[in-house]
Design brief:
The complex is a heterodimer of chains A (about 250) and B (about 250). With about 250 residues, chain A is an alpha/beta fold. Chain A has helices at about 5-15, 60-70, 110-115, 130-135, 150-165, 180-195, 230-240, 245, and strands spanning about 20-30, 35-45, 50-55, 75-80, 85, 95, 170-175, 200-205, 215-220, 225-230. In chain A, helix 4 crosses helix 5 (about 150-165) and helix 5 (about 150-165) runs parallel beside helix 6. Chain B is an all-alpha fold. Helix content of chain B is about 80%, strand content about 0%. The chains are: A alpha/beta (about 250), B mainly alpha (about 250).
């Protein structure tokens, strides 16, 4: 039984729902010493779509996101953004890091954090600072210190920082981890709105629960791509291969 | 001198604390010794040798951390011990007449214009770093991965911070010594760090506290006939004690 549903096939099945290809990865191999982390990973992300990258701890999700952003060079394979090699256009892809990578106790206000999105003389993206804050619902908290916000609000502040960058391709590394269910739902709604507005989002997650239905497409990763397609289809194809309950961390 | 060091060290310390580089600063403060000894032996300015030696120690520790999977803290402390040991060994080996106690603990009462000049150079170096790289340093402190992702030179920024730290430590050596300088780098930063909403505000607050500590320690040392450096070191700990009470 072939579990791999390539997005190209998905495109043929229902071309009407997919926009232009934005990010394309081909034959990605990554190895740390003797340990193979990614093996022959290929995918194409289309504009205006919200895609979940699902897998257990150590499945290679964060590594793949770093490769797709051009921060990590794979042993084999290539990544292209709008047809150009990612090495030449890294600024077109924004990576929002995991919660644990951020120093939340750093003395900085929400407003100043969002301003960091326009570093290195980059032109502003779709939103300026105020518009980005408004979009994520944090305008009234702009003056607050970052560590005085709830986990969900902190994630939305990070998302606002991504929105002031010129890129419309967003890679989010476990944005829903360690936040309460209402905050998670709010964040999912926000990501949905961004995708509907034309952004392309790839969101890594452990979540095998109902939240997956919020996505247009689910890619299941365990070193290589195990399944790829709409949420219901991926659940069906993986039934019997893994026990989703073991991975749920909603 | 007490005023200058009281401002310079806490402002630098704010950067180090928020970038989580205090341990590395401690390594630099000990790693300056071999350079000092060699400079004295070969007739160079001791400050120059100290800065070079401090940066070399920091680079060696970073290289060891990057190229191996060894525990970072253990690597830094091992390099610290190695450089300190080398510095102490060089004194008898090169038959130097160095006042080791003055190097380690300083003496505000004996500083000269050359020492003040070194502190002014360190102030200039810090001002250049902050004036040209303030936002990058904020980005690096709050989100190193994001900073790298945005194309900032993380290694370059950290090297620049290490170099400025070495210059600051060597310049403050005459006043408080290479050991006690760590207290003046850290203690004034901590009381108000969680209350401010910007790195700039944290620096201003730390500078004011540092000024009070350094100036107060110096003025107290005169009537008590005690060395100002150790007195400032003790005052740094006393400053933190109310925080411990408050948190329990």
């Amino acid at each position: 039984m072939n579990f791999i549903q390539s997005v190209d096939r998905l495109s043929q099945l229902d071309g009407s729902i997919l926009g232009e290809p934005v990010l394309r990865a081909e034959g990605i191999d990554v190895q740390y010493g003797d340990r193979v982390v990614l093996e022959n990973v290929a995918m194409t992300l289309h504009s205006g779509t919200l895609t979940a990258l699902v897998g257990a701890n150590g499945a290679g999700k964060s590594t793949l996101l770093h490769v797709l952003q051009g921060q990590l060079r794979p042993r084999c394979g290539s990544v292209y953004c709008d047809g150009d090699p990612i090495e030449e256009c890294r600024e077109r892809v924004v990576l929002m890091p995991q919660r644990s990578r951020i120093d939340w106790s750093f003395p900085i206000s929400v407003r100043d954090l969002v301003d960091l999105g326009s570093m290195n003389g980059q032109s502003l993206g779709c939103c300026d600072r105020e518009a980005a804050l408004q979009r994520v619902g944090l305008s009234v908290l702009a003056h607050r210190r970052l560590d005085s916000l709830s986990g969900g609000q902190q994630q939305r502040a990070l998302l606002a920082r991504s929105l002031v960058q010129p890129s419309r391709m967003l890679l989010l590394d476990e944005p829903c981890a360690a936040i309460d269910p209402p905050s998670r739902d709010q964040l999912l709604l926000l990501m949905r709105q961004l995708a509907d507005a034309g952004h392309t989002l790839l969101v890594s997650s452990h979540d095998w629960g109902e939240a997956l239905d919020s996505y247009d497409r689910v890619i299941v990763l365990d070193r290589s791509v195990l399944a790829d397609g709409p949420p219901a289809e991926v659940r069906r194809s993986l039934k019997g291969l893994v026990n989703p309950g073991n991975h749920h961390c909603g | 001198m007490a005023v200058l060091v009281g401002i310079l060290c806490p402002v630098t310390g704010t950067l180090l604390v928020t970038q989580r580089r205090v341990l590395q600063a401690n390594l630099i403060s000990h790693a300056v010794l071999p350079g000092l000894a060699l400079s004295v032996a070969f007739g160079f300015d001791p400050a120059l040798g100290g800065v070079v030696s401090g940066i070399l120690g920091a680079l060696l520790a970073e290289r060891l951390q990057r190229s191996s999977k060894l525990n970072g803290e253990a690597v830094i402390n091992t390099v610290l011990a190695g450089f300190l040991g080398l510095g102490v060994l060089l004194i008898p080996l090169l038959s130097l007449r160095l006042d080791l106690e003055a190097l380690l603990f300083g003496d505000l009462l004996t500083v000269g214009w050359l020492d003040v000049g070194r502190v002014l150079v360190a102030c200039l170096a810090l001002a250049i770093l902050l004036g040209t790289r303030y936002r990058e340093l904020v980005y690096l402190g709050v989100d190193p991965e994001g900073a790298a992702s945005a194309g900032l030179s993380v290694r370059g920024l950290r090297l620049a911070l290490s170099a400025v730290t070495a210059v600051v430590i060597v310049s403050a050596m005459a006043a408080v010594g290479v050991i006690l300088v760590i207290g003046l780098l850290c203690a004034p930063v901590l009381p108000g760090l969680h209350r401010v909403s910007s790195l700039r505000a944290a620096m201003v607050r730390a500078a004011l506290v540092g000024l009070a500590l350094s100036g107060g320690g110096f003025l107290l040392a005169l009537p008590l006939n005690l060395p100002p450096g150790p007195l400032i070191g003790v005052a740094c700990v006393v400053l933190l004690c109310p925080l411990a009470w408050k948190s329990t």
